[in-house]
């Protein structure tokens, strides 16, 4: 009877063997799937690590760029104009202008002209609300961009006593066409440095002339103009003056120190602001901001920020340009509607913190777990 009951049935050990084989195959399959998931997870972790590495490098580079910018302030009243002129169909006597730009309260623009089959180049100067008599002396450096990186430059000086354009005969039209014309267009970049100005001075609020000799202990000379001031006060307001007047360099021992300043009027306004006077307006804010950055004077930098925010009539674009060029940081204003107006230095963009980077990693891990877990 027992033999009949077991007839046609697999022995128990064979069933057990097949079960073991099934479990082994299943385990191998699961192990293979897990290995694939592990490899995918490993790849993603490596990708995250690479991203974090790039992010850290970006932060270091950003801080380095910001520090470098702070170490190398602009020390002269200069600016650049750049424009692409379409001169492909120019005949003799034809000319073209770039857009006008406001720099140091003067409108500037470039002009190219074809005259006697030669290229002539001009820089136009148009002061905003000029005095009756004025002059501006500039150093001009003009560069034409060549099609094969064979750029050509010319330098010269201009002396303006009235609104208009001054320039030079640059080169033959044929040479320009062969070497510098790209698709009928000519790319020009010009650096203008204001060397000297006259006639722009406004009434002074405070004097720093020889009448202050008895209450001063050093004379600062800016373009042949003497300023009688106190070393300790200037040093408390400026790290550059502290090093210059109280440090170990030779100038600190001198009773008269010559400064690399081209505009004595701007320096006078700078000193007035440093001494608490409301000397900033739209005619001098750019020059004062340049000196504030050059001499690392936080008080004057703050006054320039406040003026640009509260009183300046310049365009938002120009305010932003001044703030960025002279490292004024950001200026924020909250209006009645709750909106905020920003003038922000690109170097002052917030840097991701360690906690923010860790949160980024956690979010990525959760996404991976949700997708592959």
UniProtKB/TrEMBL annotation:
- The transmembrane segments are 354-372
Keyword set, alphabetical order = Coiled coil, Membrane, Transmembrane, Transmembrane helix
Indicate the segments forming the BTB domain, all copies: 216-275
Listed Pfam families: BTB, MATH
* Gene3D superfamilies in alphabetical order: Apoptosis, Tumor Necrosis Factor Receptor Associated Protein 2, Chain A (2.60.210.10), Potassium Channel Kv1.1, Chain A (3.30.710.10)
Coiled-coil ranges from the UniProt annotation:
24-51
Name-wise, this protein is BTB domain-containing protein
């Amino acid at each position: 009877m027992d033999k009949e009951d077991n007839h046609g049935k697999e022995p128990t050990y064979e069933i057990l063997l097949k079960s073991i084989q099934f479990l082994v195959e299943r385990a191998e399959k699961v192990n293979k799937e897990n290995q694939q998931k592990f490899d995918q997870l490993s790849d993603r972790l490596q990708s995250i690590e690479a991203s974090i590495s790039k992010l850290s490098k970006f932060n270091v580079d950003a801080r380095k760029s910001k520090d470098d910018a702070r170490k190398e302030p602009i020390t002269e009243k200069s600016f650049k104009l750049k424009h692409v002129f379409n001169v492909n169909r120019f005949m003799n006597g034809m000319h073209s202008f770039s857009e006008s730009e406001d720099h140091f309260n003067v409108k500037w623009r470039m002009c190219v002209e074809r005259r006697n089959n030669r290229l002539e180049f001009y820089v136009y100067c148009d002061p905003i609300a000029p005095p009756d008599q004025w002059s501006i002396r500039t150093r001009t450096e003009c560069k034409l961009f060549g099609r094969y990186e064979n750029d050509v430059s010319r330098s010269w000086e201009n002396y303006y006593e009235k609104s208009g354009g001054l320039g030079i005969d640059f080169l033959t039209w044929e040479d320009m066409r062969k070497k510098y014309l790209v698709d009928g267009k000519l790319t020009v970049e010009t650096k203008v440095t204001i060397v000297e100005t006259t006639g722009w001075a406004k009434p002074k609020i405070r004097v720093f002339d020889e009448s202050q000799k008895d209450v001063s202990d050093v004379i600062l000379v800016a373009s042949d103009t003497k300023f009688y001031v106190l070393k300790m006060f200037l040093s408390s307001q400026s790290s550059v003056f502290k090093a210059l007047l109280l440090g170990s360099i030779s100038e600190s021992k001198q009773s008269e120190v010559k400064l690399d300043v081209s505009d004595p009027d701007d320096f006078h306004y700078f000193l007035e602001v440093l001494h608490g006077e409301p000397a900033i307006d739209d005619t001098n804010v750019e020059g004062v901001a340049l000196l504030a950055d050059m001499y690392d004077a936080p008080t004057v930098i703050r006054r320039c920020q406040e003026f640009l925010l509260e009183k300046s009539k310049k365009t938002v674009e120009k305010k932003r340009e001044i703030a960025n060029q002279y490292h004024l940081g950001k200026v924020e204003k909250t209006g009645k509607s709750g909106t905020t107006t920003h003038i922000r230095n690109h170097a002052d963009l917030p840097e991701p913190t360690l906690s923010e980077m860790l949160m980024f990693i956690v979010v990525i891990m959760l996404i991976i777990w949700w997708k592959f877990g």
